[in-house]
Amino acid sequence: MAEQGEPVAEPTEAEADDELEQLRAERDDMRDRFMRALADAENSRKRGERDRREAEQYGGSKLARDMLPVFDNMKRAVEAAAKDDNEASKPLIEGIELTMRSLLGIFEKHGIRLVSPEVGDKFDPEQHEAMFEAPVPGTKAGDVIQVMAEGFMLHDRLLRPAQVGVSSTPA
Question: Of the candidates 163, 138, 136, 139, which has an alpha carbon nearest to the alpha carbon of residue 150?
Answer without folding.
Answer: 163
